[in-house]
Design brief:
The chain is 16% helix and 26% strand. It has 276 residues and is of the alpha/beta class. It is globular and about 55 Å long. The protein binds zinc ion.
């Protein structure tokens, strides 16, 4: 199984000289099994680059959204396969508060975008997910869901096949000031033994007091969760828009001064991980 990162930045796109190394595109991750089964996770601006690759392939496209916040859907109007004839695109959307499964298409209505979704050439189908559904099968991946601690809700995913397992948890606040949709113990259980844990790690200790309740996690909490869940590799994801490459490097350097039983890597656009 291969995991490729096309967008790793939280909240807002941040192109510029300070973000050349880790990238400024908002979330999009691509998973491919050795048998060619594929999944797209989120549709931030990172999906634009992925689209340039996928237009050359003929297979159906499956997109799994974590939630409808704009930084997770804003790349879709510029995703080239939606303008191709005979292209099937399936989009899986969790329930949010308020519910709006079609948000990714609604953002294309006039006057926000010149091409409304009903004029797209591709066959785009929205599939609404519901709470308490048993583990679903999608493209030969087994996928379990867990509710995010995040304003307006959303889902985290645990994606597995015979080759390995991936936890994808963005955006999520492990210790929010409001009632938790998922407790610490439930996260530890949900992610137990996962090979690769991709988790929101947007804030430092200094920043958190001002941003408590915004729906993103403290980096130290994420590291502790990785430890208790006995993950293989922790990928720090959703870098803060104000975080420069140098600052991300420094964060990782400081974390690696301690010893862990797992690898810690900061997600970077263009990075590709192989599992196993
Ligand atoms: Zn969000």
């Amino acid at each position: 199984m291969i995991v490729e990162f096309y967008g790793v930045r939280g909240s807002a796109p941040t192109p510029g000289q300070q973000t050349v190394k880790y990238g400024g595109n908002t979330p999009c991750t691509y998973i491919e099994s050795s048998k060619g089964d594929t999944l797209v996770l989120d549709s931030g601006t990172g999906i634009v680059g992925l689209g340039q690759r996928l237009i050359k392939e003929e297979k159906d496209i499956y997109i799994l959204l974590t939630h409808n916040h704009w930084d997770h859907i804003q790349g879709f109007p510029f995703f080239a396969p939606i303008y191709q004839f005979n292209r099937n695109i399936h989009i899986y959307v969790p329930p949010t508060d308020p519910p709006l499964y079609e948000a990714i298409l609604k953002q294309m209505e006039h006057p926000f975008f010149p091409v409304p979704h009903d004029e797209l050439h591709a066959n785009v189908k929205i599939h609404g997910l519901v709470d308490h559904e048993p583990t679903m099968k999608l493209c030969n991946f087994s996928i379990a869901t867990k509710r995010l601690n995040h304003p307006n809700g959303g889902y985290a995913y645990r994606i597995e096949n015979k080759e390995g397992s991936i936890g994808y948890i963005v955006d999520n606040e492990l210790d929010p000031p409001y009632e938790k949709a998922t407790t610490w113990e439930e996260w530890v259980d949900f992610l137990q033994g996962v090979d690769i844990m991709i988790h929101d790690a947007q804030y430092t200790q200094d920043e958190m007091p001002h941003k408590h309740g915004w729906g993103h996690s403290l980096i130290e909490d994420v590291v502790q969760l990785a430890k208790e869940a006995r993950v293989g590799t922790l990928i720090l994801f959703s870098h803060d828009p104000a975080r420069s490459d140098e600052q991300v490097d420094e964060l990782v350097r400081n974390l690696r001064k301690r010893t862990y039983d797992f690898r810690i890597i900061a997600a970077r656009e263009g990075m590709c991980l192989s599992q196993p």
